[in-house]
Design goal:
The chain is mainly alpha-helical. The protein is about 65% helix and about 0% strand. One of its GO terms (molecular function) is transcription cis-regulatory region binding.
Length: about 210
Amino acid sequence: MAAPPTVPPEPGRLDRSAAVKSRIRASARVLFGRDGFEATGIRDIAADADVNPALVIRHFGSKEQLFIETVGADASWGDVLDGPLDQLGTRAVRAILDGHRHGHRAFGAIVRASGRPDIHATLRNSIATQLSGPLEAALPGPDAALRAHLFCAQFIGLMVALSVYDDDYLATAPAESVVELYGGALQLTLSHPTPVSLRPRHDGVAAARGIDG
């Protein structure tokens, strides 16, 4: 017996469904960013979006998945790689400061929620696919992977200072000074294709400095 033909949903129902999902995403983005993952419940998001809580689960499956699809999607850093490699350090720092100034809280929310395996995996994957992987491919030299990962560690460190433990001194410091100093440090990490190596300590300080005798 042939299966009955599939009847597509009415266009009006599709439009309403898309509008509901959009409202849920917008509310989730604001509440997760402001209050964090743990303090934000499905009912809070539903109330803010003016929908039934059951619709949140129907469209997104779980609070974790909604978080990943909204806040996780906002944590995009790949754009900092667009541009000359010799200006990446200052460009990256300026992007962090601009995001903080405009209230972008995605990264802080993700770090605070990263004890959950799915969210932790999302954070690791986004760093690898958007930053360390492409940067490693773009850098010359045999130690490209090391320099790419060190760059990411420094890059993320500044975001942690601003978005996780709220360093007020850095947040109010002159932006151009932060860009010059920290951006220069980031660029220095990228600019040395060969790591400095010292002879074993028992060769003496003179040998470590490359002095004969």
